[in-house]
Amino acid sequence: MADFTRIATNIAALQSLNSLQNINNKLGVAQLRLSTGKRINSAADDAAGLTIATKFDFKAKGLGQVLANIADAKSLITVAEGHLNNINDILTKMKTKATQAANDTLGADERTAISNELKQLNTQIDNEVRQAQWAGVHLLVGSNCTFASASTVGSFNFQVGVGTTTADKMSFQIASQVFGANSTQSEMAFNSRDLKVQIGSGTSEWSVASQASANEFMAKVDAASLKVSQGLSYIGAIVNRLDYQEASLSVAKVNTEASWNRIMNADMAYEQLEATKYQILQQTAVTMLAQANMGPQAILGLFR
Fold this sequence. Notes:
The structure is a single chain. The protein is mainly alpha-helical and 304 residues long. The chain is built from 8 helices and 6 strands; from the N terminus they run αααββββαααββαα. It has helices spanning 11-36, 47-101, 108-131, 174-179, 185-189, 192-195, 211-264, 268-294; strands spanning 133-134, 137-138, 156-159, 169-172, 197-199, 202-204. It has a two-stranded antiparallel ribbon. Strand 5 and strand 6 form a beta hairpin. Helix 1 runs antiparallel to helix 8. It is rod-shaped, with a radius of gyration of 40 Å. The protein starts with 10 loop residues before the first helix and ends in a 10-residue tail after the last helix. Residues 181-204 have low confidence and may be disordered.
């Protein structure tokens, strides 16, 4: 309580000054939050909150990278799917030509022309398999492939979570899953060794010289088409899993960022109210300080 009769120390003025300093500090905090948009601008503002928010920020950024990983995984799988679709279209064309060759209305010249076309189509299948790569790694061949080393054949592990457990990873191994662990070029590409036709004691590749050989060729094409369909089905299942994982992680990322936002970022409407309040209190504190400084002058009346 102020004692105006003791003028050596103006207690009222000191109290007003102390109040003014406290108000200035609080006004400074509100103005800093308004200028930065952040509720926590230093660890002293909320030490525990900063620790929690840092963890949320760490997780949110990790989830953002995982979502990017999933997008990259989809791109990789799309490459494999595109080439398999092309192979499937080629096999459909080959089946049509083989069916045509199985009809005895064709002569030798016509069958030879069909054989040549089949050979070109099958060469393109080989090319599709060779071109199906991602970052130099073949997507559609196994470890025994004749044109790829074991270090460049397709076995991928996608990081689809922020942890290191098996639940945070997803594998993509179309060669071993669909075509067997020891898939060779012929098993995958259905090339001349896979589609060659045995005639008598000899071997004639790409031959549909008779109805019997054409029927045998048709059966091989059907088997190759089944493998491609299995590959496409496997790809579809993997993409569906990635879609579900992406949807789940997107929700988690939004909620994590929302939690970080509530802790770290300022409520601008509230901080504006606080700043206005402290600006008014600042003016009243200055006024009271001025009045407190004038208080000791009343003692001069005792000496008149």
